[in-house]
């Protein structure tokens, strides 16, 4: 992963000696070496050289895989190509979770790609849950600045003890910096990496108005250059594999900060941090950008008298939760 040279990602070893990741060997892992089937096994199709895998969705089933190990912090990435043509109702998810082990107190970090009708831009969302904080969604939604079905692009989830960064190619698009007020909402238990394709006709595209159309099946998404970089950890023992005492530390350089700001001002169309009807007090990790706040006010929330506004838009924001705005 050449692009990581720009990430200013460091590993601090025994005495907190910072070493640039260029020195780290972030090799991709062969599919069957790092991953196991999750569901829809006949629709999981590894390449002959085991460096890539296709996930298919047809009228019978979607499909998905997960990393065989759980990781206590790490960098998870893949080059992904999304299904082309008519993809309304289709969701491709690339995420980390430990929900199958900690059912009531799970952690999760998501990229979720939400299909669209032909000719309309793909959209996606990112989200975070910690220690079962499922009643406190932290989603942000964005347009993709390119057609993700034409070429592979790299999607990265970086999770350290101090921060979480979502990247697309070289650009950090979202950073969550941990603070004490977040408590368990910041993911802390080992997680596996998952990738799935499935039919989410009920909500994915314009709140379910456009459903999956199996005339266009199979819907195919492809993953390559899969990277699992972290300490494989037994989640119940909390025992970290020997030789894995390196701790990931990541920071966003000033140049990357500018790129992130540009991406967010141009492509983000929803953030929980600016949804004052849902969260009158933004959750503690939110860093409010005055320009973004102004824009979200301007585009999404016209002013009425308080009572009326509250009633009307509370309903609206409840509808939006888990759904898609019409575009
Ligand atoms: C996580 O949640 C459990 C209850 O489900 C609670 O006992 C525990 O203290 C929480 N952990 C953190 C770090 O907040």
Automatic annotation (TrEMBL):
<dbReference type="GO" id="GO:0016762">
    <property type="term" value="F:xyloglucan:xyloglucosyl transferase activity"/>
</dbReference>
<dbReference type="InterPro" id="IPR010713">
    <property type="entry name" value="XET_C"/>
</dbReference>
<dbReference type="InterPro" id="IPR016455">
    <property type="entry name" value="XTH"/>
</dbReference>
<feature type="domain" description="GH16">
    <location>
        <begin position="22"/>
        <end position="223"/>
    </location>
</feature>
<dbReference type="GO" id="GO:0071555">
    <property type="term" value="P:cell wall organization"/>
</dbReference>
<feature type="active site" description="Proton donor">
    <location>
        <position position="112"/>
    </location>
</feature>
<keyword id="KW-0378">Hydrolase</keyword>
<keyword id="KW-0964">Secreted</keyword>
<feature type="transmembrane region" description="Helical">
    <location>
        <begin position="6"/>
        <end position="26"/>
    </location>
</feature>
<dbReference type="InterPro" id="IPR044791">
    <property type="entry name" value="Beta-glucanase/XTH"/>
</dbReference>
<keyword id="KW-1133">Transmembrane helix</keyword>
<dbReference type="Pfam" id="PF06955">
    <property type="entry name" value="XET_C"/>
</dbReference>
<keyword id="KW-0472">Membrane</keyword>
<keyword id="KW-0326">Glycosidase</keyword>
<dbReference type="GO" id="GO:0016798">
    <property type="term" value="F:hydrolase activity, acting on glycosyl bonds"/>
</dbReference>
<keyword id="KW-0961">Cell wall biogenesis/degradation</keyword>
<comment type="function">
    <text>Catalyzes xyloglucan endohydrolysis (XEH) and/or endotransglycosylation (XET). Cleaves and religates xyloglucan polymers, an essential constituent of the primary cell wall, and thereby participates in cell wall construction of growing tissues.</text>
</comment>
<dbReference type="InterPro" id="IPR013320">
    <property type="entry name" value="ConA-like_dom_sf"/>
</dbReference>
<comment type="similarity">
    <text>Belongs to the glycosyl hydrolase 16 family.</text>
</comment>
<keyword id="KW-1015">Disulfide bond</keyword>
<keyword id="KW-0812">Transmembrane</keyword>
<dbReference type="Pfam" id="PF00722">
    <property type="entry name" value="Glyco_hydro_16"/>
</dbReference>
<protein>
    <recommendedName>
        <fullName>Xyloglucan endotransglucosylase/hydrolase</fullName>
        <ecNumber>2.4.1.207</ecNumber>
    </recommendedName>
</protein>
<dbReference type="InterPro" id="IPR000757">
    <property type="entry name" value="Beta-glucanase-like"/>
</dbReference>
<dbReference type="GO" id="GO:0048046">
    <property type="term" value="C:apoplast"/>
</dbReference>
<keyword id="KW-0134">Cell wall</keyword>
<keyword id="KW-0052">Apoplast</keyword>
<feature type="active site" description="Nucleophile">
    <location>
        <position position="108"/>
    </location>
</feature>
<keyword id="KW-0808">Transferase</keyword>
């Amino acid at each position: 992963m050449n692009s990581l040279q720009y990430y200013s990602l460091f590993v601090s070893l025994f005495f907190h000696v910072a070493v640039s990741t260029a020195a780290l060997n972030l090799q991709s892992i062969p599919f069957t070496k790092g991953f196991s089937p999750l569901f829809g096994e006949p629709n999981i199709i590894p390449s002959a050289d085991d460096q890539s895998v296709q996930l298919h969705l047809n009228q019978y089933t979607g499909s998905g895989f997960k990393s065989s190990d759980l990781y206590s912090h790490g960098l998870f990435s893949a080059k992904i190509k999304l299904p082309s043509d008519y993809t309304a109702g289709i969701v491709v998810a690339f995420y980390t979770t430990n929900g199958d082990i900690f059912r009531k107190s799970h952690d999760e970090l998501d990229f979720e790609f939400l299909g669209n009708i032909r000719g309309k831009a793909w959209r996606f969302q990112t989200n975070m849950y910690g220690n079962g904080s499922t009643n406190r969604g932290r989603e942000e939604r964005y347009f993709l600045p390119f057609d993700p079905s034409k070429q592979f692009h790299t999607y990265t989830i970086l999770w350290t003890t101090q921060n979480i960064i979502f990247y697309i190619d070289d650009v950090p698009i979202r950073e969550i910096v941990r603070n004490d007020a977040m408590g368990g909402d910041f993911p802390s238990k080992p997680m596996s990496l998952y990738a799935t394709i499935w039919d989410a006709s009920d909500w994915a595209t314009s709140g379910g108005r456009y459903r999956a159309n199996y005339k266009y099946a199979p819907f195919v998404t492809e993953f390559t250059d899969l990277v699992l970089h972290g300490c494989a950890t037994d989640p119940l023992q909390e025992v970290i594999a020997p030789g894995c005492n390196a701790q990931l530390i990541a920071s966003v350089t000033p140049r990357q900060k500018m790129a992130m700001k540009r991406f967010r001002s141009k492509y983000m169309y929803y953030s929980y941090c600016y949804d004052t009807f849902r969260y009158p007090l933004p959750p503690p990790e939110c860093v409010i950008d005055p320009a973004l706040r102004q824009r979200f006010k301007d585009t999404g929330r016209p002013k009425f008298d308080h009572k009326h506004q509250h009633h009307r838009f509370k309903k609206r924001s409840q509808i939006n939760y888990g759904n898609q705005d019409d575009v």
